[in-house]
Amino acid sequence: MVQTLLLSWELARWRAAGRRARLWWRDDDARAPGPALERLLAHALAFDAPLTLAVIPDSDRADLAKRLASVRGVRVVQHGADHVDRSAGGGAFEFPPEHTAEQIAAALREGWTRLAPLPGALKLFTPPWNAIHPRLTDALASERYVGWSAWAQVAPKATPPRVDTHLDLLRWNPTPRFRGAGRLASQLRRQLARRRKAGTWDAPIGLLTHHLDHDEAAWRWLAGLMRTVRHHPVLTWSDLADLLPEARRAT
Ligand SMILES: [Zn+2]
């Protein structure tokens, strides 16, 4: 309750300043159609929220392509090369430290070949577990990705441009579950306050979801957020593609 109250105070400050906050939405780990994906798409469509699906290209994605053919306003971006954890424990990553930019580029290219035919495909990369290999941006630049997305940075200077997520709908340990309304309100308030104080009003705030791991409480909160944003004076949805030119100018 306290967190919700503090959040409404912060939103009131934005409103008094005549500013609107730009939310964007990324959902990770899609591979194929299924009941959870249907539920996710239903949320996006019912509330006209621009959804970015971060899809794992570890195999042919023809079934997903077929499903998305009749859906409007969904972006497809690349989530990893094969989403296989090659760490020996202590932080997950796909690309071992000794991998060169060329090796990473080759893996990225193979993945992108599978995703490029999907409706709404946007050549943007999201590293699994937000693991950023030191050579990743070199590989992304040489493969001409239009951008990439990881975790927590507010207005990062990066080439290619980077647009991050900041609010994770789930907690992960020991098993995935809803993070909690109070915690999410508190995190959203902090993200808003940080931008207000820095004057970076337009820096987007990314919501991160994982449709395959949502419990009922997570779905309920997501629907509540959608309902709230639809007519909100401050909170608005942005399409990832519209955020990229600005992210590019920041570099
Ligand atoms: Zn993932």
Q: Sheet bearing the most strands, described?
A: 8 strands, parallel
Under CATH, the homologous superfamily reads Glycoside hydrolase/deacetylase
Using the CA coordinates, give the radius of gyration: 18 Å
Instruction: Give the assembly state of these chains.
Output: single chain
Query: Average pLDDT value?
Result: 95
Could you give the count of β-strands?
10
CATH class: Alpha Beta
Number of helices: 8
The secondary structure category is alpha/beta
Which regions contain 5 or more consecutive residues with pLDDT less than 50? none
Distinct small molecules: zinc ion
The string of secondary-structure elements, in order, is HEHEHEHEHEEEEHEHEH
**CATH architect. name:** Alpha-Beta Barrel
Number of domains: 1
- The percent range for strand residues is 15-25%
Helix content: 25-40%
Gap from first CA to last CA: 39 Å
Outline type:
globular
In the CATH hierarchy, the third-tier topology is known as: TIM Barrel
GO biological process, one term: carbohydrate metabolic process
Protein name: Polysaccharide deacetylase
